[in-house]
Amino acid sequence: MNEQENNAPFFRFEDLRIYAKAMDYISWLYRVLDVEFSNGNQKVLVKAFLKSAHSIALNTAEGSSRNKAQFLYYLKMAKSAVRECVVYTEIAKNGNLLNEADYDYSRDKLIELTKMIGSLIASLQRIANVSESDPMDMGQAPAFPDDMD
């Protein structure tokens, strides 16, 4: 094998910028929200926050291995996880787990993620709509309705 083949990701989702951005956000959260030093109620919030952040990456990864219609579904689940993180960001700020700079950083990253996911959803829906008119594409399920965002 040549060097390029060795460096190519085996899993398709590893090439997605959304996945990389989600992983960066998760890493940042682990640094900022130190679960070890959280009290009981804070620990519950931190774990739930991290679970929602993980869901962004997990749904992106899982959906990428599916057909277009299923990928759209998983991307919409990832977008829902972004919204959960927006709520957790606000709760964490109000509970003094995030300072103003971290709050702003979290919101900026979540806005970026939701825009990226929305763009990929729109792109896949355009492709799905073209495919629906193609009689050779028998396995294509109909696209999901547009998101309200």
Give an account of the 3D structure.
This protein is mostly helical. It has one domain: 23S rRNA-intervening sequence (de novo design (two linked rop proteins), Up-down Bundle). The chain contains five helices and no strands. It has helices spanning 3-7, 17-32, 40-64, 68-94, 100-132. The model is unreliable at 135-149 (pLDDT under 50).
- Strand segment count: 0
Silhouette: elongated
The oligomeric status of these chains comes to: single chain
What's the CATH architecture name?
Answer: Up-down Bundle
CATH class: Mainly Alpha
- Which runs of at least 5 residues are low in confidence (pLDDT < 50)? 135-149
Helix/strand structural class:
mainly alpha
The CATH homologous superfamily corresponds to 23S rRNA-intervening sequence
Distance between the termini: 45 Å
- The run of helices and strands is HHHHH
Taken as a percent bin, the fraction of beta residues is under 5%
Number of helices: 5
Fraction in helix: over 70%
Number of domains: 1
Largest sheet: none
Which whole number gives the mean pLDDT? 85
How much is the radius of gyration in Å? 18 Å
Write a concise keyword list for the protein shown above:
de novo design (two linked rop proteins); 5 helices; 149 residues
Briefly, what is this?
This protein has helices at residues 3-7, 17-32, 40-64, 68-94, 100-132. With 149 residues, it is mainly α.
